[in-house]
């Protein structure tokens, strides 16, 4: 992927009192470049329980490419592409929710736990242009994932 049509990517996860903060951080790090800085904010829930918000903003093009390469493992590309118009808001931000448990195990799946928000480049800054740019990038990622998946499967076939 040569060009990156995103200004930045924000990743955020909540660590509740019942969770191990190190494990939640490890889940978030699944998508981040090595030794990337994670911001940590301690909050209190409605009943006084401790909630730690872990977040990172990825702005450098190489780092954004790294995050996107981790997303290429998504099995649900058809669903993401079908819902893309709803996943991009009026401010040209694209939203995905990624499964925290799967991320802790090193894989990318849609689900609860990690919020992925990417500001899509769009000139002119219109919803349709942002959706088109995001679609082109995600179709390329889905294609890459399909190629790597089929290459791995081909070696296991019997003659």
From TrEMBL:
SUPFAM superfamilies: RL5-like. It comes from the Archaea. Pfam families: RNA_binding. Residues 139-159 are annotated as: Disordered. This is RNA-binding protein.
